[in-house]
Amino acid sequence: MIEQLKERVNADAGLVRRGRFLSTNFLLEVGSTQWLINIVEGRVSSVARGPFVMPSWSFVLRAPQEEWARFWQADPQPGSHDLMALIKRRVLKAEGNLQIFMANLRYFKESLAKLRAGVAA
Amino acid sequence: MSASFEPIVGRYMNLELLGRPHRLYVEEAGQGVPLLCLHTAGSDGRQYRALMNHRDIIARHRVIAFDMPWHGKSSPPAGWHDEEYQLTSQQYTTMILEIMQALELDKPIVMGCSIGGRIALHLALEHPDRFRAIIGLQAGAHVDPYYDLNFLHRPDVHGGEVCAAIVSGLVGPKAPVKERWETLWHYMQGGPGVFKGDLHFYKIDGDIRQRVAQIDTARCPLFLLSGEYDYSCTPEETMAVAASVKGAQATIMKGLGHFPMSEDPQAFIGYLLPVLEEISRTAGKG
Fold first, then answer.
1. Do residues B257 and B171 lie in contact, with contact meaning Cβ atoms separated by under 8 Å?
2. At residue A118, does pLDDT exceed 90?
3. Distances B17 to A48, B48, B135, B201, B213 between C-alpha atoms, Å
4. CA-nearest residue of chain B to A109?
5. What's the pLDDT score for residue A109?
6. Where are any strands of DSSP class E within chain B?
7. Which of B151, B186, B156 is nearest to B171 (CA)?
8. Backbone phi and psi for residue B144, each to the nearest 5 degrees, phi listed first
9. Are B73 and B23 in contact (CB under 8 A)?
10. What's the predicted TM-score (pTM) here?
11. Contact A42, A15 (CB under 8 A)
């Protein structure tokens, strides 16, 4: 499912345009599963599934599998509907160089919401 | 399409505030019982545009919204360029009372959202006799910081982009697209460090948990309206205030978020009208 990020983000021209100054690697942890996501000028260039031996990344977003599952529901409940809501509830941990995450916060919020059920590529 | 004008009139008011000259922007519409509206942190009085265009409300109320200093079309005071803006409870309270006096408002209803909802609790506690009634939107007694506020004001993060992105999830998911993005645009337009400076009051200085139970609703009725998708001031936090203040009336607004009057005016007004009716029925009896 996480692999679909590439197709869904890259199909949204507005989202790619807003991310045109963003090139980075970030780590997404869904429970114990790691995903390394590479972005080049706003396009998702690769989504790789861990475990990894020596992953390099700028920041990591880490939450239990069931929290991501609630976030990715088509119509999430209050408190599960936004990355900042998860952070407020202390279930999503953001660590690393968060300047990249915060400077592109709208991009990351909208990109990860692309994995919601019912979102077309 | 022919041009049309809204009933809203805006003026600039010059007044001495906190010992310094200020130039403030004030909008109003309607006639009747004054309804003084306080905007959220990092935004401005445009959040109340729909109320000031609502025929039934402005037929019975003089609806007023001012842009706080540093916000919207109000200027920061001279000398601002060498200062760090940080809002405090004392400054915020003084500002509201001084502006009320300047506008010659006699016992207005005050309605504030978020930081405006918090200061409404302070006003209910400290100046109940100055108001006909107090309406707190998204009003909680305290919010712990849940992200590093420094990201709101640093040169390698665009202030307007990050402020809007921080609050975007506070808009209810079903809010009309037009009103959602109008609400976020206001955040994108805020001056550098202003949202952060407001949050000094919201998350640090303005904590009223220890005193909120002392609010006397017999002296000034208190109404609380909160949106269910708000994770900044959660419904639970509003209900905690309601539970500790005897006589406070609280309603959780289905589907709405942190900016009810701006993100989904139609849904919000549905919740507001009964409150205004109740105030008109009961206020002044005491």
1. yes
2. no
3. 58, 23, 24, 18, 30
4. B165
5. 98
6. 9-17, 20-29, 33-38, 61-66, 109-113, 133-137, 222-227, 249-253
7. B186
8. -75, 140
9. no
10. 0.96
11. yes
pLDDT in tens, B73-90: 999 999 999 999 999 999
**pLDDT score recorded for residue B286:** 43
Cα Rg of chain A (Å, integer): 13
CB A92 within 8 A of CB A86: yes
Q: Which of residues 124-143 of B touch A (CB under 8 A)?
A: none
Residues of B in contact with A98 (CB under 8 A): 148, 151
> ∠ CA B148-A109-B258 to the nearest 5 degrees?
70
Contact B113, B259 (CB under 8 A): yes
> Tokens in use for B67?
């842009």
**Residue A54, both tokens:** 């020596």
Residues of A in contact with B232 (CB under 8 A): 88
ipTM confidence score: 0.96
User: For all residues of chain B together, what is the average pLDDT?
Assistant: 96
pLDDT at B284: 55
Average of per-residue pLDDT across B46-74: 98
The closest alpha carbon to B156, from A42, A103, A116, belongs to: A103
Burial class (CB in 10 A: 0-12, 13-18, 19+), B208: buried
Q: Is B33 left (phi over 0), alpha (psi -120 to 50) or beta?
A: beta
Q: Do A106 and B229 touch (CB under 8 A)?
A: no
Alpha helices in chain A (DSSP H): 4-10, 13-18, 65-71, 83-88, 98-103, 105-113
- Average pLDDT value for residue range B4-11: 98
Nearest Cα to Cα of residue B105 among B7, B11, B36, B173: B36
Tokens 């849940």 -> residue:
B146
Q: Does A17 touch chain B (CB under 8 A)?
A: no
Please say if the pLDDT value at position A94 is more than 50: yes
**Helix, strand, coil share of chain A (percent; to 5):** 35, 25, 40
